[in-house]
Amino acid sequence: MSAAIDLITGELDTPFLAVDLDVMERNLASMAGAARARGFALRPHAKTHKCLEIARRQVEHGAAGLTVATVGEAEIFASGGFTDLFIAYPIWAAGGRGNRLRALAERASLRVGIDSEEGAQALAKAVAGADVEALVEIDSGHHRSGVRPGQAAEVATAAARAGLRVVGIFTFPGHGYGPGRRGQAAVDEAGALTEARASMRKAGLEVEVSSGGSTPTAALSDAGALTEIRPGVYVFNDSQQAELGSCDWADIALTAISTVVSSSGRRVVLDAGSKILGADQPAWATGGGRLPDHPDARVVALSEHHATVVLPEDGVSLRPGDVVRVAPNHVCAAVNLADELIVLANGAQQDRWQVAARGANA
Amino acid sequence: MSAAIDLITGELDTPFLAVDLDVMERNLASMAGAARARGFALRPHAKTHKCLEIARRQVEHGAAGLTVATVGEAEIFASGGFTDLFIAYPIWAAGGRGNRLRALAERASLRVGIDSEEGAQALAKAVAGADVEALVEIDSGHHRSGVRPGQAAEVATAAARAGLRVVGIFTFPGHGYGPGRRGQAAVDEAGALTEARASMRKAGLEVEVSSGGSTPTAALSDAGALTEIRPGVYVFNDSQQAELGSCDWADIALTAISTVVSSSGRRVVLDAGSKILGADQPAWATGGGRLPDHPDARVVALSEHHATVVLPEDGVSLRPGDVVRVAPNHVCAAVNLADELIVLANGAQQDRWQVAARGANA
């Protein structure tokens, strides 16, 4: 990488987000291969990259379709030619959003999440007549949105009564984002989806789609309980994934290229701050991000345009003007702060990809 | 506000950032009045709002000029007609950035921060011939960038030798961002600037500008030690400022207008997550933001498109479809995630302001 860095930082001022194309391609191939080998449909979550170019590569690698988080993201990927979209979120389909969903359903095969009777009724009213598939969100232990597994049939029945075509269930085992928690989260995911499926069948409702999976748990997902996985972060990986052990430092495909602007002994300040890396920092993280080329360095403080880095006593020294790579803690947050990603391959800039769905929160 | 919310959410899908114009105007007037009364030049930090319309109002209220954090922000405000700009950051002025600084100096009166001999030399080389004023950054206790007060003369002398016109010193008392810390931070700020000024004078260097101030410490800044204050957040305020006691909940001018999408008893999920609020959450914060209209509610978890809110047992209930206001913890981070701000006054939408400098990190 550093050769590439020297090449491009002559032309580009830091900080900026750079994608290592070879590493990204390896990540895409490896997740696609694992899903294929274990019989899962792979529906990558596009909220991580928000780029049409990357979504195309995911489909080339065999993705069954895309997952998105918002109607705005769905609109942008539909305009980019992606016609199989799952909005994995309990959308409140009132007002303008309802009309937008109806218009979307006319140009794409659309799946939408529901987790309440009111939500299902609002959705049914909004898309009446259009062919939209509904999936009931199940809480498998993350305790965010979603209903308890035993309530799946209740919501599904209300949705069917309101006129929706309910095709299955989905969950996000987000409680796997913690040291040593991936295994239990995958077990909880399988258990919750199995119980929800049983509750649906008891009510005479077929479950075609049982969707789960996150980057930390994807490799552990239960092929008996899931038909589909929806990992997002795997395309780039980040410091969180490396610190959780779900990837190696060499698997990190996106970094902020950054310059040392200030130094005092073993403490240096970089020009990459929370306005390019994002401020996500779980309690178990070692800091505000990591330097993949300096694994012993620690980002001890992060402000908007400053990363304060402490270097090990016996390690490399950095001086003002030196250029380094910083891996964000949570890559989805970093990408959503950038207008474009600089694509590097073979030690040189190959391309620039627009972050087409940046800021598409509604 | 809630009347305004009902009016506009017919037209706009949540989540979006809204500015209460009356509250913002009150905040602008009150900080400008306080600075005037205490003899400080007010140079507001535009990184908070990144909007030309708001910068114009700050100048109308008597601001001496603007503070920015990056060359990119300076370029955007210069293009917007603002010709007195201070980049309060130890800029590394090599390569393209050096040329951009030189071009900027030709269309604006430009001040730039320095905190090292190397940085000063790179800056002098980049802007050679152009009229740029340099200010030495002093570390007053935040321990980010900046030199120890006693080293001010050393860096200033090196800068002068390199050909820069050194006009003074600046500091950011960021360690005042903590409960009960504002008073001590203001004392540290005054002490550090006084010591730095003495070190400069001893070396025969005049100090025309002694610049400090942050929103939490502005009201406590020492008129004997400072000539100028640079608060930023005060224009909008945020949950951090209210929890620190540097503003009231009624002084918060920017909120994310958000919809309840999921509920289970006293726990509800809003569609405003970290991709619109930002993920900043200091250890002392009560959660991922606050609901100004429901002061007893707590944002117990924040993910990209979900805010999990726990409502008090004896308080109001919220149901899916209800619309609420969420004040971010750190408003600078939230604004930098939005393309535009919706401006509300007298219970209706008055305007939309473009976040012109969004993402201008370089």
UniProtKB/TrEMBL annotation, chains A, B:
Enzyme Commission (EC) number: 5.1.1.1
GO MF annotations in UniProt: alanine racemase activity
Pfam families noted in UniProt: Ala_racemase_N, D-ser_dehydrat
Superkingdom of origin: Bacteria
Enzyme class: isomerase
Keyword annotations from UniProtKB, A to Z: Isomerase, Lyase
Keyword Protein transport: no
Keyword Isomerase: yes
Entry-linked SMART domains: D-ser_dehydrat (SM01119)
InterPro entries, A to Z: Ala_racemase_N (IPR001608), D-amino_acid_metab_enzyme (IPR051466), D-ser_dehydrat-like_dom (IPR026956), D-ser_dehydrat-like_sf (IPR042208), PLP-binding_barrel (IPR029066)
Annotated TM spans: none
Family: Belongs to the DSD1 family.
Protein name: Alanine racemase
Organism: Pseudonocardia yunnanensis
